[in-house]
Amino acid sequence: MDAIFIFTFYLLLSFAAAVISAAGGNWRAEIMHREHPSSPLSTASHKTPRERFVAAVQRSHLRARAIAHHIEVAAVNVGARQFTSSVHSGVGEYLMNIAIGTPPQIFTTIMDTGSDLVWTQCDPCNECYPQNDAVFNPAASSTYQLLSCTNPLCLELPSTACTGANACEYGYGYGDGSITEGYFSSDSVSFPASVGTVPNIAFGCGVANEGNFGAADGLVGLGQGPVSLVSQLRNANIEPIFSYCLVGIYSTSTSPLLLGNASTVGIAFTPLVANPINPTFYYAGLTGITVNGAQIDYPANSFAVNATDGTGGLIVDSGTTLTYLVQEVYTPVLQAFEALVTYPRVDGSSIGLDLCVSPPSADADYPNIVYQFANGSNFEVPGNNVFLLVDPPSNTTCLSIAGIQGFSILGNIHQQDHMMVFDLAAQQIGFKSVACNTL
Ligand SMILES: *[C@@H]1O[C@H](CO)[C@@H](O)[C@H](O)[C@H]1NC(C)=O
Ligand SMILES: *[C@@H]1O[C@H](CO)[C@@H](O)[C@H](O)[C@H]1NC(C)=O
Ligand SMILES: *[C@@H]1O[C@H](CO)[C@@H](O)[C@H](O)[C@H]1NC(C)=O
Ligand SMILES: *[C@@H]1O[C@H](CO)[C@@H](O)[C@H](O)[C@H]1NC(C)=O
Question: How far apart are the CA of 22 and the centre of ligand 1, in A?
């Protein structure tokens, strides 16, 4: 019902859109958690809330390992593009809708800030996995084009080959072993329920796709690399900016992903930190952490990016569920929470987390954590997003932070209920607290 309604609405809007310039554009895509009731990846029908939470923790650990692998491979292959960009971070936690072609064909794709390529399953499929929507049919789009081997964006891809027809064939692998292969192409992109189209967006027409994509129709890369959707906005004279607001794993709401120039009212910004070895990821500069108002003591430079080998730093990532702090910071942070949270302890090893408790009621109180970013902006995570409900019937909650070696990640649980702005033009990242299910 909903899909038919949105599609009809969309057809009406796209007629009006034909006369509206794309410059300075501002689009809204709907995003949902992969466990949202209408997500093609939801496991709600056959898993308990606890099982779904534990699976999310396991996926988070896998993603953190995939990013670590990417960083390790890049560190030993500095300067060799085909290596530094050949392993991407893996499959994300949120889905977004996007339409490709004229007339638009609508897809539900994984949104990923840790990789760049935009791709969808494409006819004629050699090896496609099952998905809910029809696969993209290039022959049905009047604006579809194959890109040639000499196209500048083809040259940005890590792994390409030229066919007889001079078409840019690509292969793109993720850190968890997932892969998409096909024809690098271009077409108009639009968003259901938003006016206007972005012309000539390069994307992978994937004819051989395999891995942990569930039944999602493909993936939209939102990293900083040249082939990502946000970077390509520049080619249409649109500000390379996006923002999103994330809801939690048990939420039945969707929320917005805004592309192009967006309002910055009330947003606190901090400069993006450059990492020339790992240019896709979004690094922010952390200058301090407080737990319940008390400053945490940790070695200086724990969050510095090493520009020689690309290790270190704090990555802001939508596809990693937990927050991971380098061990020398994690240890004192964990100790602070252990001292402050006095509810009965529960063994968290079967959940994959270090500090779990069983409070007497579902609305227990937990200390907050504040991440102090360069340029004076404070990112506050309230207690109920620091301790996550694992198992609604038992009220068991766990600290949603873990330790890691070599670099840190600000994960999506911490980001929930913040408007997060990624501004590639001004090279800054911003945020403000907001109830995402109301937007
Ligand atoms: C972006 O939006 C602001 C107000 O929201 C406006 O003043 C500015 O001109 C816009 N910039 C572009 C490039 O559209
Ligand atoms: C730094 O802070 C100042 C003052 O709040 C602000 O005007 C400026 O835009 C910020 N710079 C960045 C890069 O965030
Ligand atoms: C940065 O990485 C290089 C190469 O791995 C290493 O030799 C150097 O000690 C590192 N610098 C710091 C400050 O850790
Ligand atoms: C969980 O919390 C609710 C109130 O929020 C309470 O009624 C219930 O007894 C608690 N369950 C357990 C197992 O403590």
Answer: 13
CB-based pocket (< 6 A), ligand 3: 306, 308-309
Whether 255 is covered by a domain: the verdict is yes
Structure tokens, 257: 């992903």
Q: Distance, CA 50 to ligand 3 centroid (Å)? A: 41
Same-domain check for residues 297 and 199: no
- Residue 302 CB neighbours (<10 A): 17
Mean pLDDT computed over every residue of the chain: 88
**Which ligand does the CA of 275 lie closest to?**
3
Residue range of the domain that includes 163: 25-48+80-259
In a domain, residue 108? The reply is: yes
Three-class SS state of 341: coil
CA distance 108 to 95: 6
pLDDT of residue 79: 64
Q: How confident is the model over 277-287, as a mean pLDDT? A: 95
Q: Whose CA is nearest to atom 4 of ligand 2?
A: 375
Domain boundary among 244, 259, 274: 259
Q: What share of the chain has pLDDT > 70, as a percent?
A: 91
Global pTM value: 0.90
215 and 343 fall within a common domain: no
Query: Domain for residue 377, yes or no?
Result: yes
pLDDT in the model for residue 76: 84
d(CA 291, CA 422): 26
pLDDT for 295 equals 98
Q: Are residues 144 and 228 in the same domain?
A: yes
Query: Can you tell me which residue has the tokens 């061990």?
Result: 327
Among all bound ligands, the one having the nearest atom to the CA of 24 is 1
pLDDT at 24 over 60: no
